[in-house]
């Protein structure tokens, strides 16, 4: 599979961003999808996941209530709505197939920087 993430940028604390991930190379509608992130100097961590149908969602405990994952199987795209962004959300965000364990190589990611 291949992934192209977009939608990142530099925002002030408290603002929102919506990330998109266009997937190809596999049957998107048959796979769960997940978002992960890697902050400077830290290991990549799980953010959120959505089942193939969209009926089952999973979030990192620390992000529940601020982040929302969704998908559009007609567009082979998964989204991450991020609200009330905090400094500690600064990271490169990646998507991948799989509910919590990534199945394919990583894309280039999209940089999110929260700064005042």
Mean pLDDT: 96
Overall strand count: 10
Structural class: mainly beta
Measured on Cα atoms, how large is the radius of gyration?
A: 13 Å
Which strand-content bin applies to the residues? over 45%
Given as residue ranges, the uncertain stretches (5+ residues, pLDDT < 50) are: none
Distance from first to last alpha carbon: 36 Å
Number of helices: 0
Lateral arrangement of strands in the main beta sheet: 2-10-9-4-5-6
Give a quick account of the main beta sheet: strands, pairing sense, barrel closure.
6 strands, mixed
Sketch the topology as an H/E string, one letter per element. Answer: EEEEEEEEEE
How is this structure best described in words?
The protein is an all-beta fold and 116 residues long. It is built from no helices and ten strands. The strands form two sheets. Strands 2-10-9-4-5-6 form a six-stranded mixed sheet, with no helix packed on it. A hairpin with a 6-residue loop joins strand 4 and strand 5. The chain starts with a strand and ends with a strand.
């Amino acid at each position: 599979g291949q992934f192209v993430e977009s939608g990142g940028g530099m925002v002030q604390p408290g603002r929102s961003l919506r990330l998109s991930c266009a997937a190809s190379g596999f049957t998107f509608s048959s796979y769960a999808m997940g978002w992960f992130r890697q902050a400077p100097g830290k290991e990549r961590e799980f953010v959120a996941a959505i089942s193939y149908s969209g009926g089952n969602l999973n979030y990192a405990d620390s992000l529940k209530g601020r982040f929302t994952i969704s998908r559009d199987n007609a567009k082979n795209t998964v989204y991450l709505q991020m609200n009330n962004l905090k400094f500690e959300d600064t990271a490169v965000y990646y998507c991948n197939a799989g509910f919590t364990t990534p199945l394919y190589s990583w894309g280039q990611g999209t940089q999110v920087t929260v700064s005042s």
